[in-house]
Write a sequence for this structure.
């Protein structure tokens, strides 16, 4: 049995004044309407970030009694992981229709924190916390500093990633920075430094927002309201929570998750028409591009140059404006999937990638800790 995404939607984004559960309910209602389904059709639920028992809390709020749930908390990659789990559950007959949903009120709550207390026996507590790093920014800054040193590059290529994200946001009316105007490399480099070499415009936004997708069997999805978007492949890898214990700051779990997803789908990086790659920071994009196989090690600076990842470029990347310029509600992974679905359906208006048939969504969680890759395709992309 093959599995497809039958519905996808965002909640309100930006500064909403809504609670986490209100944002989730809004996204769920929109996604089910998109699919032509009702809450009564749902028997599976995957979610995180709503509390200690996220699946139970969201199910209770929505009035669901699911027979399958997942509330794995792995940071921004969790939602790509949920796609794999949902596919497996539907194929195994555990459930028939799965909602993957998320919501965050970070901006309204004036908070950037998703983490809990650090246990005193962990490597983080012993070797990192005493130096009061900005979590998670200083950790990603260490990876960026290492990248610049090893490959002998300047910050300009990181700035190009932020510039391209803003260009996409200008084509997206829902983007938080839609009215802010274009960015230049010079403006990114001149922005206040937060944790060297990461400046204010190298870091993601803090916004409210949420989303939902609906998965069911491909046969059933073909009879529903919108064209099905098929799950072609998936993979994941968790490498550890402590940066002080990492053997190589420039080698991430995307190496493993990407290879697994492409192998399962029978595809190669060159087959991807549009990519949605987690952009918590500009360095996150550079490392992911290399480890997913879109370019070689140390080649990201040249790969992103010349507008390749901007509108009109040969590699459309983060077409909403991403976490850098569109929306970053604590965890972005689900919104990457929503945009991938919309691109494959041709629903994206001014930012639409022509003839997109295969899309990649890649989530990163924690301190480069968890990685999950999903490949999606239209009917034409099926083998």
């Amino acid at each position: 049995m093959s599995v497809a995404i039958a519905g996808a939607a965002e909640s309100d984004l930006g500064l909403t004044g809504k609670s986490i559960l209100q944002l989730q309910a809004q996204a769920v209602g929109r996604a089910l309407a998109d699919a032509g389904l009702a809450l009564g059709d749902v028997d599976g639920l995957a979610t995180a970030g709503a509390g200690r028992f996220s699946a139970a809390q969201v199910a209770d709020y929505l009035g669901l009694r699911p027979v399958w749930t997942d509330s794995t908390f792995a940071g921004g990659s969790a939602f790509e992981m949920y796609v794999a789990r949902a596919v497996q559950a539907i194929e195994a007959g555990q459930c028939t229709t799965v909602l993957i949903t998320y919501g965050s009120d970070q901006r309204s709550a004036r908070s950037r924190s998703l983490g809990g207390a650090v246990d005193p026996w962990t490597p983080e507590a012993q070797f990192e916390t005493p130096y009061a790093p900005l979590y998670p920014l200083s950790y990603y800054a260490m990876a960026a500093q290492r990248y610049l040193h090893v490959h002998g590059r300047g910050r300009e290529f990181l700035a190009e990633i932020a510039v391209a994200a803003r260009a996409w946001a200008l084509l997206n009316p829902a983007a938080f920075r839609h009215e802010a105007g274009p960015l230049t490399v010079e403006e990114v480099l001149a922005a206040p430094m937060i944790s060297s070499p990461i400046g204010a415009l190298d870091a993601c936004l803090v916004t409210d927002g949420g989303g939902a997708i609906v998965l069911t069997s491909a046969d059933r999805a073909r009879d529903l309201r919108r064209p099905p978007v098929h799950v072609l492949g998936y993979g994941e890898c968790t490498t550890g929570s402590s940066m002080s214990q990492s053997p190589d700051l420039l080698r991430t779990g995307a190496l493993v998750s990407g290879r697994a997803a492409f192998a399962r789908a029978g595809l190669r990086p060159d087959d991807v028409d549009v990519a949605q790659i987690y952009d918590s920071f500009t360095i996150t994009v550079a490392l992911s591009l290399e480890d997913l196989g879109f370019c070689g090690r140390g080649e990201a600076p040249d790969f992103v140059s010349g507008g390749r990842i901007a509108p009109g470029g040969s590699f459309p990347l983060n077409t909403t404006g991403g976490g850098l310029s569109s929306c970053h509600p604590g965890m972005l992974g689900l919104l990457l999937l929503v945009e991938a679905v919309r691109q494959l359906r041709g629903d994206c208006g001014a930012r639409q990638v022509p003839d997109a048939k295969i899309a990649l969504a890649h989530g990163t969680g924690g301190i480069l800790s968890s990685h999950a890759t999903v490949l999606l395709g239209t009917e034409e992309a099926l083998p």
Remarks:
- Residues 61 and 90 are 23 Å apart (CA to CA).
- DSSP finds 13 helices and eleven strands in the chain.
